[in-house]
Amino acid sequence: MKRTILTVLGLAALTAGGILAYLVLRKPAKAPALAIKVEITPARLERGKYLFDVVADCAGCHSQRDFTRFAGPIVHGTEGQGFVFPPELGFPGTIVAPNITPDVETGIGSWTDGEKIRAIRDGVSKDGKALFPLMPYEYFRSMSDEDVYSLVAYMNTLPPRRNRLGRTELNFPVNLLIKGVPRPAGSVAHPDRGDRMAYGKYLTTIATCGECHTPAEGGKRNSDMAFAGGREFRIGPYLVNSANMTPDRDTGIGAWTQERFVSKFTGYRNLSGDNVPKASQANFTVMPWLALSRMEDEDIKAIYAYLRTAPAKVNSVTVHPEYVPGQ
After folding, report:
1. Does 136 lie in the same domain as 45?
2. Do the beta carbons of residue 74 and residue 59 sit within 8 Å?
């Protein structure tokens, strides 16, 4: 009997060791970086800036933010130079949004355009490592070829900013498990802008609306409650819960007209980093209103049209609850 128990324990240890060895040695799925030099045209620069600053809000993660003020405006002069996320957000380690300006020593000035495209859509860095999926490549995987070319074209024109940051350091076992997240995007066609529903789905995806507006436990989104809100965000002395964006009439946006939805965005267009009020528990938000308020009205209408097709979920959310840090 004792020998049997020892045999079982030995086999279990070997199995666990084998799994661990597999995870340690595993490489993320990746395709070779495209051998491409993106042509910079006025049209691509305009579209790329719109994606970088507004829809995909790349600037919102890769710049310094002042969260002592409403909506955390970007600190002028830090655009693209990187950001270390506050630990109170509860990520599994130290998460760094790196410097993505063309600075050769501290940014991505030595990266090829193909390597930039692979990082944005596939989630694989220049050195072949998996990126932590706070970088929303799972959503950007749907970004069309032309849009990602435009985004890279614009990024190539950013002023180089010398800002050396540490690297993301993930806790075990997340540092091993994320290797399974990247996936080659391949070639992605651009959606028909004339099909409002399809284009709305596209914009909602690359704007990563579902990431923040879907409840999550232990970093894993509850797909059965997509867009139902209730995800917590804590920064400094403040806490906010994301709103329910499903068509439920009582707890979501089911009673909202298109005009009300559009005005929710455009109502912030008079605000900028120069005049936003101070943050308080009553107004604190991580929603990038200063960026999204600049979205084109027709794009906001397309997002509204798509969200109206999402399954309605009853989920009453107190966006700004009473909150005492540490309790």
Report:
1. yes
2. yes
Q: pTM for this structure?
A: 0.92
d(CA 44, CA 37): 13
- Domain boundaries, position 301: 191-320
Looking at the fold, whether 239 and 306 belong to one and the same domain comes out as yes
Give which of 179, 186, 80, 72 is closest to 133, Cα–Cα: 179
The pLDDT tens digits for 136-180 are: 999 999 999 999 999 999 999 999 999 999 999 999 999 999 999
Q: CA triplet 113, 115, 120: central angle to 5 degrees?
A: 95
Produce one character per residue of 292-316: b if its CB has 16 or more CB atoms within 10 Å, e if not. Answer: bbebeeebbbbbbbbbbebebbebe
Tell me how crowded residue 16 is: count the other CB atoms within 10 A of its CB.
10
The two structure tokens encoding residue 286: 């991580």
Closest CA to 127 of 172, 167, 157, 88: 167
Q: How many domains does the chain have?
A: 2
Q: What pLDDT digit, counting tens, does each position of 25-73 carry?
A: 578 888 999 999 999 999 999 999 999 999 999 999 999 999 999 999 9
| Rounded Cα gap, residues 321 and 109, in angstroms | 44
